UniProtKB/TrEMBL annotation, chain B:
Keywords: Membrane, Transmembrane, Transmembrane helix. This is Lipopolysaccharide-assembly, LptC-related. The keyword Ribonucleoprotein does not apply. The keyword Transmembrane applies. One of its GO terms (cellular component) is plasma membrane. The chain crosses the membrane at residues 35-57. It comes from the Bacteria. GO terms for molecular function: lipopolysaccharide transmembrane transporter activity. It holds the Pfam family LptC.
Length: 165, 220
């Protein structure tokens, strides 16, 4: 199941500014995590993430610098979104219960009772969705474990497929 | 002389009086006990307070240097005072244009145009410039108001309407809008609370954050 590279917009190598809105933010510098909670919306370029709770794990430190105060380069290593997660990018929308973004491997793994991936009229439902942010390739499995059991429900509109890549 | 048949009556009345006496002395005794139970500790705390007060005043005095002093209706007005104190590796020093020590409550000092430097950890300082502030030397709290600019040595600066700083626990908090900026982006929030002990920073009541990845990347 390959899709256009619209999802690639969300990788951390993307240079567009990231805007995050939430009700609360707690920065726990000791364990290098920042927790956004309460209707979290993250927008970068035309990619959007919505969730109830987003935990951002960073290396380096939001607040530390080397001795003479230069802020050490901080990089976001992982994001954990928990609670009705929605990721949308251009015409693709993926919804599920939880999603984790591994920025180093550029992989998004979305899980949930019902993970729904839709692109325009086409809808695919499964349990586990893995999106490769670099290639934009999305693999949907029917069960949490792996691709072997369970059934993936696919709804494809005939005329829409040939238009896409 | 008591005779047999009225023995019980006399005996009874005598017993009566003895009982009465015992009860009265018991009451007197318990009064004494109660008195001691309250008077002694009260006296003790009073002495302790005096000692503690003296020590605090003493250590406040040692860290205090003042320009000229004048007594006005507002209180004892000190011009450009400089006050410093430390506790472990945390230290603070506070300067102001004017400091007015209230006559009614000498531990509280109102300050105008304050510049405060707080070393939160070795190599980590927070500098604060504020229009007004109230410094409680005993509680070691500093309440800043009317516009504050805070710069943090790790490359962050922040603006507040007012800010309450508890220098003993190192908590800095405000229930008013917060705007924290750095070259890597900014955070706006409805309120902020920084708990220095466990290094946890809480923004509440609506948070808006903007990150500039390229700035984050090259070390901002």
């Amino acid at each position: 199941q390959t899709f256009s590279d619209s999802f690639a917009g969300f990788g951390s190598n993307n240079k567009e500014p990231i805007e995050i809105e939430a009700a609360n933010l707690q920065v726990r510098d000791n364990d290098k995590s920042a927790i956004f909670s309460g209707n979290v919306v993250v927008i970068q370029g035309d990619t959007k993430l919505e969730t109830q709770r987003l935990i951002v794990f960073y290396s380096g430190s939001m607040a530390n610098g080397d001795a003479d105060g230069q802020a050490v380069q901080q990089s976001i290593s992982r994001l954990e979104a928990k609670g009705n997660v929605l990721i949308s990018s251009k015409d693709q929308v993926a919804t599920g219960d939880d999603a984790s973004f591994d920025m180093d491997k550029q992989l998004v793994v979305m899980t949930g009772k019902q993970v729904v991936l839709s692109q325009g009229p086409n809808v695919v439902v499964g349990k586990r969705l893995v999106i490769n942010l670099e290639t934009g390739k999305a693999d949907l499995d029917a069960n949490e474990g792996g691709p072997n059991t369970g059934r993936v429900k696919i709804l494809l509109q005939p005329n829409s497929v040939d238009k896409k890549n | 002389m008591t005779t047999m048949e009225n023995m019980p009556k006399e005996f009874a009345s005598e017993a009566q009086t003895r009982l009465e006496k015992a009860r009265k002395s018991a009451r007197r005794h318990s009064l004494l006990v109660r008195l001691l139970r309250y008077a002694l500790p009260a006296g003790g705390t009073l002495i302790a307070l005096a000692v503690v007060g003296m020590v605090i005043f003493q250590n406040v005095l040692s860290g205090l240097s003042i320009g000229d002093i004048s007594l006005t209706t507002e209180g004892l007005v000190m011009s450009n005072p400089h006050l410093s104190g430390n506790d472990g590796d945390r230290s603070y020093n506070v300067q102001a244009d004017r400091a007015i020590q209230r006559i009614t409550n000498p531990q509280v000092i109102d300050l105008e145009k304050i510049v405060a430097e707080i070393t939160v950890a070795p190599g980590e300082t927070v500098s604060i410039i504020s229009q007004n502030g109230t410094f409680d030397t005993e509680m070691e709290t500093l309440e800043l108001s009317n516009g504050i600019q805070l710069t943090y040595s790790k490359g962050y600066s922040a603006e507040f309407e007012y800010l309450d700083i508890d220098m003993k626990t190192g908590t800095i908090q405000t229930n008013d809008t917060v705007d924290v900026m750095s070259d890597g982006g900014y955070i706006d929030a409805g309120s902020m609370e920084f708990d220095q002990k466990n290094n946890v920073l809480n923004f509440r009541r609506g948070v808006k954050m903007k990150l500039l990845p390229w700035a984050l990347e090259n070390g901002q």
